[in-house]
Amino acid sequence: xxxxxxxxxxxxxxxxxxxxxxxxxxxxxxxxxxxxxxxxxxxxxxxxxxxxxxxxxxxxxxxxxxxxxxxxxxxxxxxxxxxxxxxxxxxxxxxxxxxxxxxxxxxxxxxxxxxxxxxxxxxxxxxxxxxxxxxxxxxxxxxxxxxxxxxxxxxxxxxxxxxxxxxxxxxxxxxxxxxxxxxxxxxxxxxxxxxxxxxxxxxxxxxxxxxxxxxxxxxxxxxxxxxxxxxxxxxxxxxx
Length: 240
What we know:
This protein is mainly alpha-helical. Helices cover 58% and strands 0% of the residues. The model is unreliable at 119-124 and 126-130 (pLDDT under 50).
């Protein structure tokens, strides 16, 4: 008995739907890739700065004026003194992101950007490549309330991470990380919730479920929300 081959009739409407689906899916993939690259860039720049501050041969020459002088020396869009401060803060706040950034960068064979003059190894093996004592390393044991690094890296934009890094209290920061991820918060919504003291109100509320329901659950972040972000435009060197 001859096997019947599955056959799907192609119609004009189905053709249009398939093309639209391809556009949407690959547009989302491209936006996600841009965001991951931007997050990796920010974290790596912060790593370089911290490594230099601790081990740079001529670091004493610059002292507290390091970022100001560095911004002048680089002289590139998106690398002003304020941005460099944010990259350093992000690295210091989220050192655990290294376990996501390292394989992401190595996937594209960019081993050279992980090399530092102060690194303790010249090995090029993917699992041991040039780790310095202050750089990419295994994170300390995580607390149950901490957000896993893969969720931070894959579910929050680079702009979200910089914003969250400014929240000094770890529990409060973890709370907003979780809410931003589960609620699909845009950066504007995250700022609104922080400004309205949502964390503090949640701690004082007798009906936490009711308060939680009042928090806005936004739609999924659209590709254009990432691509049109001023920081992403700077990163891609595109006009705003």
